[in-house]
Amino acid sequence: MRVIYGGTFDPVHNGHLRLAVELREMLAVPELALVPCHIPPHRAHPGAGSQERLELLQLAVAGEPGLVVDDRELARGGASYTADTLRQVRSEVGADEPVVLVMGADAFAGFDRWRDWQAIPELAHVLVVARPGYAFDPDSVPAGLLRTRGCGSAKELASAPCGLFLYQALPLLDISATAVREKICKGLSPRYLLPDVVWQEIQRRELYGFRLPQGNL
Ligand code: ATP
């Protein structure tokens, strides 16, 4: 089984990383791939460049063999459409291996506005992680997909290569990249919201509005 967890990771934080660890263990897979986007089609321009976001993510997972970073969206260039990413993955793994695309409920709420979204369940299962305080509009297309094509447990995902939707509650940390960026920009400390090594690199590169004290360069 291949598990793909995409995002902007602007920057990666402990909420993303804990989710990745919890999922890898729940799905009992040897590794889970974090896939940073190059150009996100559905949101504002990220605060850091794609190469910087990628390198911060690589620092964050170094030494954690169960988590790997897949840079295919940067290598492909252009807008990062998930359907294109999954087509590439599917062509590598063949028709029979289960592929699981992971996203938070906030991301899934806009699923039917993604380019070529109908192709996605033909290529992968979709595992939607509940986010605290986030509820779907019951009349929305994504809520309908969970009702009509939803499955009851992670075990079922192994029984088919694609096509199932699973809504899964997991223990989550209430951290967002927006909150991390805002703290840094205001000169507040984001420590313990993200790995120290990532925070140190953000400071070294003066990302997200952080400025080193003069004379410290
Ligand atoms: P932003 O605040 O900039 O929107 P974010 O923290 O939501 O960023 P993204 O890179 O946009 O991070 O998210 C990638 C994926 O991770 C999305 O599917 C999102 O739902 C999920 N996610 C983000 N933060 C958490 C968290 N604390 N716990 C679990 N999942 C999360």
Structure, described:
Helix 2 (50-61) runs antiparallel to helix 9 (196-205). The protein is globular and about 60 Å long. It has one domain: Rossmann fold. Strand 5 (125-129), helix 7 and strand 6 form a beta-alpha-beta unit. Helix content is 36%, strand content 13%. A six-stranded parallel beta sheet has the order 3-2-1-4-5-6, sandwiched between helices. The mean pLDDT is 94. The protein has 217 residues and is of the alpha/beta class. The chain contains nine helices and six strands; from the N terminus they run E-H-E-H-E-H-H-E-H-H-E-H-E-H-H. It binds adenosine-5'-triphosphate. Residues 7-10, 15-16, 19, 103-104, 106-107, 129, 131, 172-173, 175-178 line the site of adenosine-5'-triphosphate. It catalyses: nicotinate beta-D-ribonucleotide + ATP + H(+) = deamido-NAD(+) + diphosphate. Belongs to the NadD family. This is Probable nicotinate-nucleotide adenylyltransferase.
